[in-house]
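User: Can you predict the 3D structure for this chain?
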Amino acid sequence: MTGKYKRRLSRGVVLPVQQFINREKSAGVVLGISIVVAMVLANSPWSEEYFHLFENKVGFFFNGEPYLYYSLHHWINDGLMSMFFFVVGLELKREFIGGELSDPRNTILPIGAAVAGMLVPALIYTLLNAGTGAAGGWGIPMATDIAFSLAIIYLLGDRVPLAAKVFLTTLAIVDDLGAVVVIALFYTSEISLLNIAIGVAFLLVMWGANKLGVKNVLFYGLLGIGGVWVAFLMSGIHATIAAVLAAFVIPADARLPEAIYLKRAARHLRAFSRMEPNGVSTLDHKQLEVVAQMRNDTRDAMPPSQRLEHAMHPFVSFVVMPIFALANAGVSFAGLDGSVVFSTNVALGVALGLFLGKPLGIVFSTWLLSRLGVARPAEGLTMRRVVGLGFLASIGFTMSMFISTLAFTDDTLLLQAKLGIFAASILGGIVGYRLLKK
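Assistant: Here is the predicted structure, written as C-alpha cells:
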C-alpha cells in the first residue's frame, strides 16, 4: 500500500474511528445499539438460538472434575463485568485522591442528592412489594447508568452549563459507589469463609507491595485475577466486588515524580534536536535510543492506576458493556400479556422507583440542603436544571439490569424488572433531555 493510500485510509477510516471512541457520548451510543440488537434478536425467528447461546457452559476440567465451569451468561456477568467494576474502582480512587470527591465541602450537594436518589426509589419499590417473594429487588431502581446519562447531557452541548455536568458526574460516581456497597452487603449467596480469607490474603499482599513501591502492572494483574478474583468468585460474594477492592490497592503514585520527569523530558528533547536528520523516514540507532528513553520515562511518569484506567476504559466501554447488553437486554414479547407483566408489582416498583423516586430524591435533597444553608448550588445550577438532571439519573439501565440478575432467579420476575427498567429509562431520558434543552 502506497503512502498516498495509507494517508487516505488514516483520514477516512482510522481517524474518525479514534475520534468516535474518544467522545464521551460514544459509549452510550454503542450501548444503545447493543440493546436494540438484543431486543431484535430476542423477538426474531432466531430467538431460541439467541437465548440458548448464553446457556452454554465453559470452564476447566482437572482429573475429570469441572473447575470454574459456568454458563456463558455467568462468565459475562461475573467475568467481563468484573472488568467494568475494576475500571469503576480505579475511577473512584482517582476521584477520592484528586477529583470531584477529594474535597467533601464541594461535593455535599451532589453526594446528598445521590444518597437520597438511591433511598427514595428503594423505599417506593419496597412499599409496593413488601412481604412478597419479589421484595429483594429493592436495589434495582437505586442505580444510575452513567454512560447513558452522560451521553445525553453531552448531546446537549453548551445548553447545559459546566456546573450541571459536574453535578451529574459526581452524583453518578457516588451512585456507583453506593451500588457496589449494596451488591457487596445484600446480593451475595452462600459464603465460604475460607475463600474469602484467601482473597483477603491476596489483597493484603497487593497492598503491601504497593507500600513497598512495586509498580509492575503485570504483578498486580496476576494477583488480582488469579488470586483475589478467583477466590471471591468461589466464596459466594459477587466477584465484581473483588474487582473494586483490587482497584483500590493498585498504586496511584508514579515511579517518576513530575519534576524529575520534566527535567528528563527536556534533556531528551535537547539531545534529539542536536542529532542530524538522516534524510529517511526511519530513525537511526541513537535517535531510537533517545525516543525509547522518552517512552519509558513517560510510562514511569503515569501512576499504574491511571495507566490501567486509560488503557481499559475503551475496551470496557466498547466491548464489555455491549456484550453485557447483548446477553441481558433481550426481552421476548412472544405471548406477553398484562397478566404476566402485572402479576406482581415488580415492573411497577422498578419503573416508579426510577422514574419518580430518582428525581424526587435528588430534587428534594438539593432543595433541602440549599434551604438549610448546608450547601449552595453552583452558578448556573437552577432548580429546573436539577429536575432535568434528576430525570436523567433515572436512566438505570446497566447497573439496574445487573442488580436484577442478582436479585431474581425467577424468569418472570426478571422479565418484569427488565420491562420496568426499560420503561423508566426511556421516559427519564426523554423528559430529562426536554427539560435541559430549553
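Confidence is low (pLDDT under 50) at residues 8-22. The radius of gyration is 24 Å.
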